Known about the structure:
Helix content of chain A: 40-55%
Shape of chain A: globular
Number of strands of chain A: 8
Oligomer: homodimer
Number of helices of chain A: 9
Amino acid sequence: MDRKELELYLVTDRSLALGRSLEEVVEAAVKGGVTMVQLREKNCSSMEFYREAVRLKRLLADYRIPLIVNDRLDIALACDADGVHIGQSDLPYPVVRNLLGKNKIVGLSVENREDVEVANRLDVDYIGISPVFSTSTKTDTAPRLGLEGVEEITALSVHPSVGIGGIYSGNAAEIIRAGADGIAVVSAIMSADDPQQAAAELKKIIDSEVKKSGRS
Amino acid sequence: MDRKELELYLVTDRSLALGRSLEEVVEAAVKGGVTMVQLREKNCSSMEFYREAVRLKRLLADYRIPLIVNDRLDIALACDADGVHIGQSDLPYPVVRNLLGKNKIVGLSVENREDVEVANRLDVDYIGISPVFSTSTKTDTAPRLGLEGVEEITALSVHPSVGIGGIYSGNAAEIIRAGADGIAVVSAIMSADDPQQAAAELKKIIDSEVKKSGRS
């Protein structure tokens, strides 16, 4: 994958969409500059998850934006998603890679140095540094890593990386300066009054930092 | 599949295992006469589900008893299970068959005549008639079908069938007499003081009814 696809990574949460459909928020966010979308569902049936994945896949294909499915490899296979994102308590990475094939994207959450050292020995496409800050949108997280954690992990990792957890326009620049290739956000876009504008604002901050860093 | 494999179908529920491991209960049940096992997990991580599936697959392979995974096609693929059982709100049947291949078992729960008519047009391996009686082990069920429902559905269905929901030694014979090829049980074995003996007792009842019916 192109590491620029990680720059502004939207992770969905329908409970934060203020009553709007996921497609409505995701389409607005993509128009604003989101570079990748992860469908995360924790409390719906497999049928609902599948139908939502099919709708998003169709929508995102028009914009050439990759769709990543959180945890559920079967849903990813069923909708021909571009990849899967797994955490440390999801299916083991080798199992996912084997079933998904080498042409799909597999991202892995890392929560500490040990996780990064394990990831370095795997052909994962990117790591999600989780959580950078405290967040209310995911309650089963490891301790916050902070900006020092992001610096340490990006220095150690051989893979592209994205920070996640409590990131918004007020701290997005720091994550990029700490070495991450991008930021992943949930509520900063899902719950924005204007998701397109929120995405555009975040993208502008990232573009500016990436340019300053000489990585663009 | 051989329809005799449906005769005594154990569906797991670790919360009903009285503190024993699933493997311990399943192995005893298989020694008692269980002919097929479905791993059903609703409240654990994908990693835990996968590890349990791998352990059961290894155990059951020794006894040549098929392992079916409830709902989660990815877990079935990951552990090379013998099949998947899907309900009406799981992944659509054609998607599951396509990803699993024609040599694996796919079972489908039916809750009314319409579901059976749809199933009749599909190459499902068996149907699960659900729920026959009221049950406390699954709370999201459709209305109970009763023995009349089992008679009606088995007459209508072109596929082998198993009844599920509130079945135990006291009503197992009636399910077979109503036309089902087998019974699926959860608590009647999972919560038995002696799962091997409980399975043996159920198997004896089924064998006797199958013999009387002239289907054996």
